[in-house]
Amino acid sequence: MVELAAILSLAAYSGDEAAVRQLLARGAWPDHTTTEGLNPLHIASSCGHAGLVRLLLEASPVTAATADSDGGTALHYAAQGSRNSPTAAVVRLLLEAAPAAALAPDAVGFTPLHSTADAGNIEVMKMLLTAAPAAATMLNTNKEAAIHRATYRCNPAAVQLLLEAAPALAFAPDACDETPLHLALSGYWITTEARETARCLLGAAPAVQPALDILLQHSQRYATLFADLAARLPLSQDQWRSIPAPCPDLARALPAVLGRSTAEAGWLVGRLAEGQRKRLRAAALGLARAQRGVPSLPAELRGRILALCLLY
After folding, report:
1. Which stretches are ANK repeats (predicted)?
2. What are the DSSP calls for the chain, one per residue?
3. What's the average model confidence in pLDDT over 127-147?
């Protein structure tokens, strides 16, 4: 029987459904494990063989909740599939067989959601969050939630999904005192994905100063992000002064800033390049002349018009 079980594991790896059916009919043990604690269901789940997963679950339903020597369940293995692999069908079968596995941590505290956040499979993330919303707030032994893993991989779609599930973790520090925003900006390469991931996080910033402090650490590489923070939250005069000048892209925030405070708009203009300030003054004078004798435009609309003037 041990030999049959070993052959069953090989068939599970290769995806040979006919061989698996024959081996099970001959009495192969579906719950037999390797020296690493892997059973055929772990192997089939890791490879994304949905048909085999169904067969093995029918033969031994309890294996859906069985952990290997590192605490990993079949759901952990399925969740590790890449964003383009056919893992969703496997995950669905495993959740139906053992829904509690969605909250099961492995030896280092990784839940299946941590694993799929690493892999970037949005469809599987949605399935796991629906089955176990609490998974979004679970921490591994490094005090990382799934959002830390998604941010480390600079996956803005995954980060946005996890922010909706657990917004309070947007600036939660891990065991190394690094927040998701730190992780997004600390990569060696400056990428569009990193910038968009950071923008998602800034959109959930609970206060200015923590986010501003992190942006100041990376101001030479990601100066464009100051505009995203300024557009969302009001800054004090001292906070505006801390932003390196000139900061040309800061003009993007002008409509939102002018809409909430003319004082802040003045502080923003002070951080622009001299050429931008001159063009802005000329545009403001022209706009004032055009509005003589007519009702004043809303502040945000004036800001949009002035910001557009800086683009040309």
Report:
1. 36-58, 70-96, 108-129
2. -HHHHHHHHHHHHHT-HHHHHHHHHTT--TT---TT---HHHHHHHHT-HHHHHHHHHH-GGGGG---TTS--HHHHHHTS-TTSS-HHHHHHHHHH-GGGGG---TTS--HHHHHHHHT-HHHHHHHHHH-GGGGG---TTS--HHHHHHHTT-HHHHHHHHHH-GGGTT---TTS--HHHHHH-SSS--HHHHHHHHHHHTT-SSHHHHHHHHHHTTTT-TTHHHHHHHHS---HHHHHHS-S--GGGGGGHHHHHHH-HHHHHHHHTTS-HHHHHHHHHHHHHHHHHTTTSPPPPHHHHHHHHHHHTT-
3. 98
Comparing CA positions, the residue from 273, 202, 204 lying closest to residue 243 is 273
User: If you average pLDDT over residues 250-255, what whole number do you get?
Assistant: 89
pTM of the model: 0.86
Which two three-digit tokens encode residue 205? Answer: 């910033």
Query: Is pLDDT of 291 > 80?
Result: no
Q: Is residue 140 part of a domain?
A: no
CA distance 52 to 38: 15
160 is a domain residue: yes
On whether residue 39 sits in a domain, the answer given is yes
Domain that holds residue 182: 145-206
On whether both 84 and 160 belong to a single domain, the answer is no
- Same domain for 10 and 74, yes or no, is yes
